[in-house]
């Protein structure tokens, strides 16, 4: 029996007082789906679990989204990625992560391929020193003054850019913590 650790990334929960999903309840939902060793991280929709069924990530994400809807009455976009992928994303960071503050570096995890054509209309030169790079189902964003003031971050958040795809961002502290939690 093969066991695999996964990270679940929920989009847009516990923000601004709406779409509340308490972390204890999220752990209950994941346990109820048959997962074990469930751990949550922060209040922003990060969970780690172990599975032995061998199902794929999209099946897990759909089941989690359905279970959250059943329990809380609203839809939540979910991504599930295995430990190897989470580590590969961190290892492939094109920016010098070790020398940056966590608020300066973010990863947007995507449910599909990060087609460069989606981002072609964004003139990166006009946003310098901010910049982004495309990875494997991920977008890396460097914002020296933090995401809250980032004009490039705002451009990358515009409606329609990720149409047909789930996209959810995490700062570098969360990226590395998910790697740590899935590799225990």
Automatic annotation (TrEMBL):
Signal peptide: none
SUPFAM superfamilies: SP0830-like
A matching Pfam family: DUF1697
Gene3D superfamilies, sorted: SP0830-like domains
Name of the protein in its database record: DUF1697 domain-containing protein
């Amino acid at each position: 029996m093969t066991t695999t650790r996964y990270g679940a990334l929920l989009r847009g929960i516990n923000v601004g007082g709406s779409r509340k999903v308490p972390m204890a309840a999220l752990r209950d939902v994941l346990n109820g789906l048959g997962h074990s060793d469930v751990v949550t991280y922060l209040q922003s929709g990060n969970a780690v679990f172990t599975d032995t069924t061998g199902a794929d990530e999209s099946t897990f994400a759909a089941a989690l989204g359905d279970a959250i809807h059943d329990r809380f009455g609203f839809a939540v976009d979910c991504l599930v990625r295995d430990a190897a992928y989470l580590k590969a994303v961190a290892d492939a960071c094109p920016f010098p992560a070790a020398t940056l503050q966590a608020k300066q570096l973010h990863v947007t995890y995507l449910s599909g391929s990060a087609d460069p054509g989606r981002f072609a209309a964004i003139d990166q030169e006009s946003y310098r020193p901010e910049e982004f790079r495309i990875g494997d189902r991920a977008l890396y964003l460097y914002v020296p003054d933090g995401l809250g003031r980032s004009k490039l971050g705002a451009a990358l958040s515009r409606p329609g850019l990720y149409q047909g795809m789930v996209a959810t961002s995490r700062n570098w502290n969360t990226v590395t913590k998910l790697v740590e939690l899935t590799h225990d």
